[in-house]
Amino acid sequence: MRSFALYLLMMLSALVHSRAGPEALAATLSALVTGVAEGVVADAVVIVEQESEAIDLIIEATGAHHVVIAAGSDPWSAGAALARRDWFICLEAGDIPLEGWIGAVDRFAFIAEREGYPIGRLARRAPDWREWLRERVGRLSRAIRAGDIVHRSKLDGAAARRPRIAGVEAQILRQPAPQPERDLAPAG
């Protein structure tokens, strides 16, 4: 069990970029509740590109903060401006951190300061070969993306151009987009 001072130092803010519907956002925020209970997640900031009444209701119900950005803007820097902590877990609405993520993120944040604040990258579980290939190629990118654990210092202009990426032994599952309901009544 960590000391109270370490809890305060290692807590992080969740930055959730929501470009999907309210169901995806609700799934991601509810998956973070365990992290809140374990003392790893301190707060959440939802980043949207346009206001939506349904998403606003979810944000209000969960006590999250939110920011509206222009399409194409950097969602992580915008969310970080409202976040209370210096460490962030960056997620897309629909991302579900899988079992074991809390311990893996906690361990990463604990050693990262000594390692020069690398970017921690969680793996994505791919549903098909196209997504698997996209994930593998995306791992090579140095840009901050959903599934990364980032220190505030990596989001400012003084950050290194080619930050070091460290793998984090945890996975994220992307919730599939809801399929439209079909009428199953026989034609005729």
TrEMBL record:
Keyword Signal: yes
Top-level taxon: Bacteria
Protein name: Glycosyl transferase family 2
Secretion signal span: 1-20
Keywords assigned by UniProt, alphabetized: Signal
The species this protein was found in: Saliniramus fredricksonii
